[in-house]
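User: hey, got a sec? need CAAX prenyl protease folded
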Amino acid sequence: MLESIVDLPVEKQIFYAVLGFSWTVYLWEAYLSYRQRKIYRTTTHVPPELGKIIDSETFQKSRLYQLDKSNFGFWSGLYSETEGTLILILGGIPFLWNIAGSVTARFGLGSEYEITQSLVFLTLATLFSAVTGLPWSLYNTFVIEEKHGFNQQTIGFFLKDAVKKFMVTQCILLPVTSLLLYIIKIGGDYFFIYAWLFTLAVTLVLVTIYADYIAPLFDKFTPLPEGELKTDIEALAKSISFPLTKVYVVEGSKRSSHSNAYFYGFFKNKRIVLFDTLLEDYSPLNKSGEPQTEQPESDESSPESKAKPKNKKQGCNNPEILAVLGHELGHWKLGHTVKNIVISQMNSFLCFSLFAVLIGRKELFVAFDFNDSQPTLIGLMIIFQFIFSPYNELLSFFLTVLSRRFEFQADAFARSMGKASELYSALIKLNKDNLGFPVADWLFSMWHYSHPPLLERLRALGNVKQD
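Assistant: Yep! Here you go:
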């Protein structure tokens, strides 16, 4: 078998290598998921070491939720891998490229207008992806998330949101892609440097404007009201010289009851965003017994969300929120954000440099049925998505390991601020609110968990607290 593959033309070897590696990764992921599903199925009682941390009812709810998610992930992953394989075998990429050429030809634009054809191709490809992914997204939201009490959306709001996301994505993707292709074409021998600098600039701009101009298109951001919590957050930021300018609450509850918090901004203009579902005193999910006039977004007639009776208290109290923010600010103080940006940009520069070496290799294009042309966008797709896939897998694993290390360090930073016990209880509450399952297969955890499992984080906090 191996000898017959070696005897094939180099472009065929490339094609089968890409296909073979893709299925190897899929089978590896499927094996890891199988191991974790076995944990979900067999761990039906709270382990002794978790007896004081999680009650039996919550443990069973989280077990069933994660089991449903894992089963869904198996079938959606199998579909995705099969779809990708069929696209490659049946020549879906050159077929779509030719359709894009036919569209531009209708407007009198020939093959010399490669960038225009590339943008049409990109639009068609993202539209195809959105349409084929829609049933899976609908099932995940309105079957799995609905079943386990997380979904807060109506079908109408979901579809309106999906269309809005698609349009916003196109408004960003198409201009950026056209400029990138233009830079590559006119950049000469050092185009990879200019292309990298351009993507760096785009990344910095998007990070800067996302929360102020893009995120508000989808969610409502309001300043955190004056009060004890805001005063304490400002004092916490000041104690570590974090240049905080504003604190926002985002109305995440209109989509989901999952909770989160993050900060953003560059230099002296940092802002903190708290999900309303994180705040015990603000979460609409804790107010289901109050008059509807106090939460009109939960009216049955509202196109954005729907009322759901809640039997549990959600969110964290103020000291616990401060502990969570102590963890998040620890990422900033310890330079984790900057380190991640540096690693990302080093990787980007390396990939563009290798792309410059490989883009002239005709056999890469012939391998994917581009026998008569070598479009730059197709070259980017082939090299970055397919040829670099082994490297991308290794890099992803490295970043997962690094992320876990950063999470332990951020926990330790919050602990050093005297917030160990509050973070301890906050982690338990957040795990309960999000139905996180606290038992993990070691191999699945090592490969996938960018955040350490709950028990490992609690042990680290608890041991030092005792010291």
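Quick note: The beta strands are 221-223, 244-250, 261-264, 270-275. Let me know if you need anything else on CAAX prenyl protease.
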